[in-house]
Design brief:
This protein has 568 residues and is α/β, with parallel strands linked by helices. It has four domains: 99 residues, Alpha-Beta Complex (Isoleucyl-tRNA Synthetase, domain 2); 124 residues, Rossmann fold; 129 residues, Isoleucyl-tRNA Synthetase, Domain 1, CATH 1.10.730.10; 59 residues. The chain has 19 helices and 21 strands. The mean pLDDT is 93.
Length: 568
């Protein structure tokens, strides 16, 4: 029995022995902080064979382990009483017998954490000590910890390094056996008179068994292969190697070329089950890391913060979402709201935002394809717009390249999202758009198609379907051509005019302010206005853009501000 050493009400039991009711077994009183002082009497009956936490206490204090259960849930002879009775019948009978013996002080109902079978939801899980196969892990932990902590193998976001370190520094041996009817069967063969051998197949096992036992008359039928199968993760930890047959054929061309790979994208909830173990197996069998970077996505949760699961029934049907919002809409909406490693509170509104952006891209495509093209002279406003947007495109591409190198994927998506919606659709297309019924000059149109194509290439990793479709229809393509293998290196490394970008932001602000004045003074958007600039106009080079976008008649420089007469 265990008490908390800081529990004053039970200190009188320190160092004593107590008698277990009904079986009359004498047990010692031990002390440990694990016991909750506020729960019940503050005294815990420790049963190492039938509770995970009790087992840990048993290991810590070297307690006797008594397994009272048969495999069918009835009590074994080790229980001394109620032998052969079902566990649930015994729970009820004990109450009766304790009351009859005058040993029941009182009963209280409380909510207990009882595990239930996933396959049989009405079956309560009963912890039971059993023989299992374990893998010693300290050797693997010693290999796998330094590369991550030294940033030879990088985690994104890096906050998961501490979680990884804590697990490896407190590593426990890995139970690799499972009592299932499917999986890789454990290659251990038991001998008829005790002992076992481990071999690839029954023929090798028989040879080893004969050598071990000294009995040359043994046959394959005399050996019994363990019925357990290997833990699924024990197969999965070899995935980066076995994918290229690197275990059976360790020096083949494919594994020498592909191993180690660049990136692993996964969820933080399996950092121990899978990520750490793949790193371990990589250093054990290839003497090298399996991948250079690990990007941890967030976990999608419902509005209540619960993890999506089949049992809770709180996971939306992705096919229905795709039917409603499109694959790119769902994909883009989720990525836009998913900072690296942070959980994603799912709301259909984010998919709707993705669909709306798809519509924006499609409508911009339809608009540009609807224009008639002429070999007329290029308007000055269009020339400036082309120069400005090309600089903006190169600037954003460089920003995205930097963000992607840091695995800040949602920020990279937001950058190209704003570039398309706020700059290309809202400003560039409006500047170059010809008057109703008039054609667009061929020079501006050609540059517009070039830059639209480059926009699609920046968007493609996030929205693969609509970008491929529009890219194929933007120009005549050869058979087999695809946006997937188009290079954006020139775009990312392209030069851009920072002064022009800054000046253009001022010009946009001027247009916005003029539109605001029109609205507040109830002046129609087509009514010509004159803007006077006191002193030298710092952005005079952009006047043609401001004139068109603000609906102005002219922009003039004056020495002093005009005084407007007031009527009393």
């Amino acid at each position: 029995m265990c008490i908390n050493p800081s529990d004053p009400k039970n200190l009188w039991l320190k160092g004593r022995k107590v008698i277990v009711p009904l079986v009359n077994r004498t047990v010692s009183v031990i002390e440990d902080d694990y016991v909750d002082v506020e729960f019940g009497t503050g005294c815990l009956k420790v049963t190492p064979a039938h509770d995970v936490n009790d087992y840990m206490l048993g290991e810590k204090y070297n307690l006797e382990t008594i397994d009272i259960f048969n495999d069918d849930g009835t009590l074994s002879k080790e229980a001394a009483i109620y032998i052969g009775m079902d566990r649930f019948d015994v729970k009820r009978q004990i109450v009766v017998d304790l009351e009859s013996a005058g040993l029941m002080e009182k009963m209280e109902d409380y909510t207990n954490k009882v595990g239930y079978s996933e396959r049989n939801p009405d079956t309560a899980i009963e912890p039971k000590l059993s023989m299992q196969w374990f893998l010693k892990m300290q050797h693997f932990a010693d290999m796998a910890l330094p590369p991550v902590m030294n940033d030879e193998l990088k985690f994104y976001p890096p906050k998961y390094k501490n979680i990884y370190r804590n697990w490896l520094e407190n590593i426990k041996d890995w139970c690799i056996s499972r009592q299932l009817w499917w999986g890789h069967r454990i290659p251990a063969y038991f001998l008829p008179k005790g002992g076992f051998v481990v071999a690839d197949n029954i023929d090798k096992a028989l040879r080893m068994a004969r050598e071990k036992s000294g009995d040359s008359t043994l046959t394959a039928d005399d050996l019994r292969q363990d019925e357990d199968v290997l833990d699924t993760w024990f197969s999965s930890w070899l995935w980066p190697i076995s994918l290229f047959d690197g275990i059976n054929n360790p020096d083949n061309e494919e594994i020498n070329y592909y191993y180690p790979t660049s990136d692993l994208v996964t969820g933080p909830d399996i950092i121990f089950f899978w990520v750490a173990r793949m790193i371990m197996s990589g250093y054990e069998y290839r003497q090298d890391m399996p991948f250079r970077n690990v990007y941890f996505t967030g976990i999608v949760r419902d509005k209540l913060g619960r993890k999506m699961s089949k049992s809770l029934g709180n996971s939306p049907d992705p096919i229905e979402l795709i039917d409603k919002y499109g694959a790119d809409g769902v994909r883009m909406g989720l990525m836009l709201s998913a900072p690296a490693g942070n959980d994603i509170p799912f709301d259909e509104a984010i998919c709707e935002q993705g669909r709306n952006f798809n519509n924006k891209i499609w409508n911009a495509f339809r608009l540009t394809r609807s224009w008639k093209v002429s070999d007329m002279e290029q308007p000055e406003s269009s020339r400036i717009a082309v120069e400005w947007f090309h600089s903006k495109l190169c600037s954003t591409a460089a920003e995205m390249d930097d963000l992607m190198s840091k695995y800040r994927i949602n920020e990279a998506l937001m950058a190209v999202y704003k570039l398309f919606w706020d700059e290309f659709a809202s400003w560039y297309l409006e500047i170059i758009k010809p008057a109703y019924g008039r054609p667009i000059d061929s020079k501006t149109y050609s540059k517009t198609l070039d830059m639209f194509e480059q926009l699609l290439m920046l968007l493609h990793p996030f929205m693969p379907f609509i970008t491929e479709e529009l890219w194929q229809n933007l120009r005549n393509r050869k058979d087999g051509e695809t946006i997937m293998n188009q290079s954006i290196i020139e775009l990312v490394s392209g030069k851009y005019d920072e002064v022009l970008l800054a000046d253009f932001e001022q010009a946009k602000q001027v247009v916005t302010e003029i539109r605001s004045v029109r609205k507040s003074k109830n002046i129609g958007p087509r009514e010509p206005l004159t803007v006077e600039v006191v002193g030298t106009n710092p952005i005079a080079a952009l006047n043609t853009v401001i004139l068109k976008m603000a609906g102005l008649d002219k922009i003039v420089e004056v020495e002093t501000k005009m005084t407007v007469p007031h009527h009393s």
